[in-house]
Amino acid sequence: MLKKERHALIIKEINLHNKVLSSDLALQLNVSEDTIRRDLNEMDEAGTIVKVHGGALSRSYHYPFQQNDIYAGEAKKEIAKKGMDLIKDGMVVLTGGGTTVLQMVGMLPPTRTATIFTISPLVALQLADHPLITVILIGGQFSKNSQVCVGTQVVSYLSEIRFDICFLGTNGISIGDGLTDSDLDIVQVKKAMIKASNKLAIMCVAEKLNTVQRMRVCELHQIDCLITDLEPDDSALNAYRRENIQLY
Amino acid sequence: MLKKERHALIIKEINLHNKVLSSDLALQLNVSEDTIRRDLNEMDEAGTIVKVHGGALSRSYHYPFQQNDIYAGEAKKEIAKKGMDLIKDGMVVLTGGGTTVLQMVGMLPPTRTATIFTISPLVALQLADHPLITVILIGGQFSKNSQVCVGTQVVSYLSEIRFDICFLGTNGISIGDGLTDSDLDIVQVKKAMIKASNKLAIMCVAEKLNTVQRMRVCELHQIDCLITDLEPDDSALNAYRRENIQLY
DNA sequence: GGCAAACGTGCAATAACATGCAGGCCCCTG
DNA sequence: CAGGGGCCTGCATGTTATTGCACGTTTGCC
Q1: A19: region left, alpha or beta (phi > 0 left; psi from -120 to 50 alpha)
Q2: Which end of chain B is less crowded, N or C, counting CB atoms within 10 A of the terminal residue's CB?
Q3: Quick one: closest CA in A to B57, which residue?
Q4: Is the Cβ–Cβ distance between A209 and A189 less than 8 Å?
Q5: How far is CA A46 from the centre of its chain?
Q6: Are A170 and A203 a contacting pair, CB within 8 Å?
Q7: Signed CA dihedral, A195, A201, A204, A208: sign only
Q8: What distance in Å separates the CA atoms of residue A130 and residue A104, rounded to the nearest whole number?
Q9: Whole-number Å distance, CA A5 to C1' C25?
Q10: Whole-model pTM?
Q11: Chain A residues touching B17 at Cβ < 8 A
Q12: Which residues in B126-149 are b (16+ Cβ under 10 Å) and which e?
């Protein structure tokens, strides 16, 4: 087995799986782990791969963070655009505090007139430079983790108003468990928000579909609109389509 | 499972849900919680994430508004420091929304315990990473000019609570006209804030001393503390000293 | 104020590592 | 063809990294 040959195989393996283990390669190529290590070191110095303790990773895999952010950013913009279209002139809207919601309100055209209630200071600030939209910030205890207002104040306030539509971001959504979240305070507020609204729109990046968190927010059938970055007829959404959820 | 691999997965999880629990990760990645803790600590030191008790949070989500800190001039920092000293452990504090107030709450030592009510979303967000302070955001119509909550909701809410001390920024202050402001909504809220508080502290940069705005907020004698960037015995403050205002 | 979960630390076992050395292979030269 | 040098490989050595567990402490919640 020639060195170049091994290198080629290692690269092939890394391209395939984004990672290799020294021990696997030694077994597979029938050489000692020392040799593999030497190979990996050379290739790391050459910049072909990234060596780590125990094996090596593909160079692109080593810096997936920014790519992911950008990718997720694009997806969220896509979702935001679709969600935005659900807000018609004169509507009374209620929103939660996710980044997708934030994106959405930032994209609202300056000519749109609406009243937006929100539990998120960030959403309120985002809307500060919108000329026509009236913003009502719903006050209460400020949750440091999720940067929205929670607590009994919020819940009882919500009980006194009816909204045309409620936009919520997603933490977990799945067929079996419906909409789920990880924070008790948030769950209670979200429940109250849903109860106070005629329509419920859930915004969800495809990656979060079919993930489950600890606590239940609501059943699937309570969701009216599901807005994702996928095409509405994507097969990944089949199960949700069967629940009579309007897909966007 | 390679360490880098775990790190990448943790980051992915955090980007997705904005937070992770050590216990969940341990289960999901099939390693001990100790290992996860070590991972999270490393990533926290590297600045990738923010570690908290029980798990970790996304850095970008947690500090989206840090750029705001830059604006504060030296004078405002000086004022902020003096004002900060008036907040003692256990106090129930009410604040308005000026940049000086924002500076001040940003400087509060991490060991300080207090409950801070505020009409300013920015103040709430600024305090989001303070471990001990409870933040109550007072909700209402969001004023786009001044980026605080105003309106009858706020006023009636304030009528039901008593605060130890109220911090307000300054728009205009002068011997003849007292504290003045330019926006009717703001004035009404400020009046209610003053009425609800045992002590009134006004934060004011020297340039704004002896300026007058269109509408009156309160008389000079209602002010308990005047915090400026001048020395307390500065002659420019003589007139205010005569009004029995405590100078800082 | 009490309790359980989360925490940090030290320790030990194991895996992975770097390094030096010896043997084997190839090629070159005499 | 014999010998030698360069390169690669495997093995042995000692070192470092990583991980899980045990311990006592801190933290957050009720």
Answers
A1: beta
A2: N
A3: A145
A4: no
A5: 36
A6: yes
A7: positive
A8: 13
A9: 17
A10: 0.83
A11: 171-172, 182, 208, 213
A12: bbbebeebebbbbbbbbbbebbbb
- Altogether, the residues listed in chain B come to a count of 248
| Distance set, CA A241 to CA A74, A220, A244, A246 (Å) | 24, 11, 6, 7
pLDDT confidence of A46, banded at 50, 70, 90?
confident
Task: Return the structure tokens found at A82.
Answer: 């679709």
Nearest to A124 among B128, B130, B142 (CB): B142
DSSP letter for B209, please: B
Q: What phi and psi values does residue A237 have, to the nearest 5 degrees? A: -100, 5
Least confident of A211-225, B33-47, B68-82, B86-100: B68-82
Tell me which residue of B113, B110, B141, B118 sits closest to B197, measured CA to CA. Answer: B118
How many Å apart are B148 CA and D10 C1'?
A: 73
DSSP letter at B30 equals T
Mean pLDDT of chain B: 88
- pLDDT bracket for residue B131 (50, 70, 90): confident
Angle at the Cα of A188 from the Cα atoms of A151 and B130, rounded to 5 degrees: 45
Lookup result for tokens 């009216």: A224
Number of Cβ within a 10 Å radius of residue A97: 23
Assign 3-state DSSP to chain B and report helix, strand, coil percentages, each to 5: 45, 25, 30
Cα distances (Å, whole numbers) of residue B214 to B171, B172, B175, B211: 10, 9, 15, 10
Any bridge partners for residue A229, and if so which? none
Q: Which residues in window 41-60 of A are less than 7 A from strand D by Cβ?
A: 53
Task: Quickly count helices (H) and strands (E) in chain B.
Answer: 10, 15
Provide the 8-state DSSP code for B214.
Answer: S
What nucleotides of chain D have any atom within 7 angstroms of a protein Cβ?
8-12, 17-22, 27-28
For the CA of B35 and the C1' of C7, the distance in angstroms is: 13
Residues B158 and A114: their CA atoms lie apart, in Å, by: 27
HEC secondary structure over chain A: CCHHHHHHHHHHHHHHHCEEEHHHHHHHHCCCHHHHHHHHHHHHHHCCEEEECCEEEEHHHHCHHHHHHHHHHHHHHHHHHHHHCCCCCCEEEEECCCHHHHHHHHHCCCCCCEEEEECCHHHHHHHHHCCCCEEEECCEEEECCCCEEECHHHHHHHCCCCEEEEEECCCEEECCCEEEECCHHHHHHHHHHHHCEEEEEEECCHHHECECCCEEEECHHHCCEEECCCCCCCHHHHHHHCCCCEEC
